[in-house]
Structure formats: structure tokens, C-alpha cells
């Protein structure tokens, strides 16, 4: 969590991800900011498509803003590339929620050709396991969001138990929750036990 990173850190991360893609279970914990930027969103989609994501833990906001990006090219009403406010943009995330709820689920919105790109699209198409945990702050929420916190915690724990690598990005809430669920291990040489 340090504010300065070094090239060797990225080299080690690349090596780890290469190894884990073939031999482990990579769990990503994402916050909604990943979907606020077109390039970040597309970069994560690339990670999913290349097999570097075995499970995703997130909340309603990531899914809603990602779907909003797919439907309108916005997140929180701002263009996801230019960051410029769009006319009546503050309604876009509510329109995205309504569209998915009308169809019944994110999966049905993807299968029906309504949502054609983005993180949730990639995750569903690649059959990546995901848990969307609800929060008292959620608007909507989307149908797949687990509103019962105990049920959400149990599903997150089931994923976390299998994790060999966890990468949390752009979320404090879900990162802390996941950190509290993952088992500990130690490294001996290059092996984790």
C-alpha cells in the first residue's frame, strides 16, 4: 500500500500472475473506480479475457457503473473517456439499474445483447465466478447483488478460501472485508504453504 512503487515490484507481479494463471486461483477485489475510466475498464477486461481472473469480489457499485458504461458510455453521468458531464447524466446509473432489473439479471442483459462490453460482460462470458456483496448504501441494487450480509460473507469466504493470490484495487471496504476472510500462509523458497 505504499505510495511509491518500483519497477521490480511490477516484474514480480507479472511473474506471480503468470504462475498463478496456470497453477493458482487469482481473486480480484474491485471497487467502482475501475469502471469509471475507459482505459482501466478495458485493461481489466483484457485481464479477464487472458485468464488472469479466476474470481471477482465486488459490490453493487462496480456492477452498476460498469453496466452504465456499457449502455451509455458514462459512469456517474460522466463520459468514461473524457470525464465530461453529460446532459442528465445523473440519471444514467438509475437507468442502468432499471434496464438490468427489467430484464431480471446482469446475465440476462448480456445474453439478450443489451450489455455488450465491460467488466461484467467479460466475467459472465468467461464464466468467472463472482460475488456482488450488498451494502446499506446501495441504490437498486442489481438482481445478483446479495443483500443479506451474512450470505454475502459466506459466499465471499468460500471464494477466499480457494485464493492463492488476492489483488484488491480501488476499494477499501471490500479489500478489508476480503482480507479478514483469507487464510494465512507462509512462503518457503518459491512455494506457498
Beta-strand residue fraction: 5-15%
- The total of beta strands comes to 8
Question: What string gives the helices and strands in order?
Answer: HEHEHEEHHHEHEHEE
Strand neighbour order, sheet with most strands: 5-2-1-6
Report mean pLDDT, rounded to a whole number.
92
The biggest beta sheet is recorded as:
4 strands, parallel
**Computed Rg:** 17 Å
What would you call the quaternary organization? single chain
Helix content: 40-55%
First and last CA, distance? 24 Å
Number of continuous helical runs: 8
Residue runs with pLDDT of under 50 for 5 or more positions: none
Structural class: alpha/beta
Silhouette: globular
Please supply descriptive tags for the structure shown above.
193 residues, alpha/beta, two-stranded antiparallel sheet, 8 helices, 15% strand, globular
Describe the structure.
The strands form 3 sheets. Strands 5-2-1-6 form a 4-stranded parallel beta sheet. It has helices at 7-23, 38-49, 60-72, 92-103, 106-111, 119-125, 149-162, 173-179, and strands at 26-30, 55-59, 74-75, 78-79, 129-133, 165-169, 187-188, 191-192. The protein has 193 residues and is an alpha/beta fold.
Amino acid at each position: 500500500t505504499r505510495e511509491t512503487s518500483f519497477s521490480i515490484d511490477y516484474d514480480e507481479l507479472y511473474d506471480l500472475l503468470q504462475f498463478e494463471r496456470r497453477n493458482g486461483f487469482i481473486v480480484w477485489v474491485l471497487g467502482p473506480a475501475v469502471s469509471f475510466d475507459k482505459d482501466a475498464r478495458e485493461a481489466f477486461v483484457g485481464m479477464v479475457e487472458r485468464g488472469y481472473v479466476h474470481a471477482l469480489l465486488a459490490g453493487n457499485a462496480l456492477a452498476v457503473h460498469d453496466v452504465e458504461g456499457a449502455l451509455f458510455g458514462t459512469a456517474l453521468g460522466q463520459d468514461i473517456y473524457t470525464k465530461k458531464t453529460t446532459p442528465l447524466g445523473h440519471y444514467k446509473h438509475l437507468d442502468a439499474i432499471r434496464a438490468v432489473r427489467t430484464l431480471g439479471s446482469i446475465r440476462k442483459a448480456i445474453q439478450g445483447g443489451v450489455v455488450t462490453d465491460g467488466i461484467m460482460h467479460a466475467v459472465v462470458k468467461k464464466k468467472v465466478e463472482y460475488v456482488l456483496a450488498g451494502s446499506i448504501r446501495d441504490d437498486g441494487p442489481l438482481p445478483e447483488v446479495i443483500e443479506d450480509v451474512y450470505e454475502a460473507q459466506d459466499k465471499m469466504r468460500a471464494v477466499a478460501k480457494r485464493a492463492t493470490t488476492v489483488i484488491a484495487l480501488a476499494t477499501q471496504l471490500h479489500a478489508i472485508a476480503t482480507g479478514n476472510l483469507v487464510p494465512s500462509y507462509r512462503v518457503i523458497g518459491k512455494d506457498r504453504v
